[in-house]
Specification:
Elements (H helix, E strand, L loop, with lengths): L6 H27 L8 H26 L8 H27 L5 H65 L4 H18 L6 E2 H19 L3 E6 L8 E2 L3 H12 L8 E7 L4 E7 L11 H13 L6 E5 L2 E7 L3 H15 L1
Parallel strand pairs: 2-4
Antiparallel strand pairs: 1-3, 4-5, 5-7, 6-7
Helix pairs in contact: 2-3, 2-4, 3-4, 4-5, 4-8, 5-6, 6-7, 7-8
Length: 344
């Protein structure tokens, strides 16, 4: 039970108590005196309010303190029973003390009715707030879990890219030092992009990264690799998951023959379905299994965790195609705000 009293809540409870008292007193006056205002003047009314409202107010303060007290009791029925017992004891002691100190008659029936009404009202308020607090906490935990899973999936990409790039660089060093130097320069620029650690990037940023990556691959494969871009400029402001398009290029290069005899052409193009498509003619390397690979599975999970459409993977007429959803700027801004709020 983690609900705590705040000044706003106290003010709301006090306002509710005043409203209850006005309605209750009006009904009581109408029944007892046949009028809602049986007082001779305003001063007489204030005396009546003092003697009638003060006990109700003090009882309400105690009842609220009992219900909102810090407790480790998690069982709702047990807490309500203990609260009710404490309120009954309080009511008995309070009425006897009030009779002695104020030398006034106490209407035990009316006092008990007020105590029961206030008890039910405050107890209901407590559990409604507790339920809302639990729902918010559960949602927060859910969002944090999704964030951790997303970050874990993203973290798998960096070592994979680094390993492949260094492996390629190692193959160039000693065989073609000039190409190795140019490759290293492009690798440095490319890896800076990866180290930014952004959760979402604009399509324009991603395509800039793809351009650098493509130059790295062209240093390695020369004219045997062709990467073509056909992108609608109006969609450059949309967002994608970082390193998503690069991963698709890497996947195509990894699983297909790239040679003088069989050059590889990869097309990167936006579609009218709000996606960006990466496609290539299939010429699998000898010994390659027909699999979409862990990289594509990773990418699909990252989009799912962001609440987006899944990526689309098709293989038709010997053309392998992957489509990645584009995220509208408004949706991306809301998504980033939620992620930043959960992180903080």
């Amino acid at each position: 039970m983690k609900v705590k009293l705040t000044w706003r809540l106290v003010a709301a409870l006090l306002l509710g108590l005043v409203g209850y008292y006005i309605v209750f007193q009006a009904f009581y006056n109408q029944i007892a005196f046949k009028t809602v205002f049986p007082y001779d003047n305003f001063a007489d009314m204030m005396v009546g309010v003092f003697y009638n409202f003060t006990p109700t107010f003090l009882q309400s303060v105690f009842i609220t303190a009992v219900i909102f007290r810090p407790t480790k009791i998690q069982h709702i029925g047990l807490k309500i029973a203990i609260d009710a017992l404490l309120v009954i004891v309080m009511l008995i002691i309070f009425n006897f003390a009030y009779t002695r100190l104020m030398d006034a008659h106490v209407d035990w029936g009316g006092s008990a009715f007020n105590a029961i009404f206030v008890f039910l009202g405050v107890e209901t308020t407590f559990y409604v707030l507790n339920f809302k607090s639990s729902m918010r906490e559960a949602e927060t935990q859910k969002q944090l879990a999704l964030q951790y899973r997303y970050d874990a999936l993203k973290a798998q990409v960096n070592p994979h890219f680094l390993f492949n790039s260094l492996n390629t660089l190692g193959g160039l060093i000693g065989n073609d030092d000039e190409r190795a130097q140019r490759y290293l320069q492009q690798f440095s620029a490319t890896y800076r992009y990866i180290m930014q650690g952004k959760r979402l990037v604009t399509l324009e940023e991603e395509l800039g990264f793809v351009e650098n990556y493509g130059q790295m691959m062209e240093i390695r494969y020369g004219k045997n690799l062709h990467i073509e871009q056909h992108v609608d400029a109006a969609l450059l402001h949309c967002y994608v998951v970082p390193i998503s398009i690069q991963l698709l290029l890497e996947n195509a290069i990894k699983h297909n023959v790239v040679s003088d005899r069989y050059p590889l052409r990869i097309e990167v193009a936006t579609t009218d379905k709000g996606t960006i498509r990466v496609s290539n003619a299939m010429r699998p390397k000898q010994g390659e299994s027909d699999s979409s690979g862990m990289g594509l599975a990773n990418l699909g999970k990252r989009y799912q965790l962001l609440g987006q459409r899944d990526i689309s993977i098709t293989s038709i007429n010997n053309v392998f195609t992957v489509e990645v959803p584009l995220i509208e700027p408004q949706a991306a801004a809301k998504m980033l705000e939620q992620l930043n709020n959960k992180k903080s």
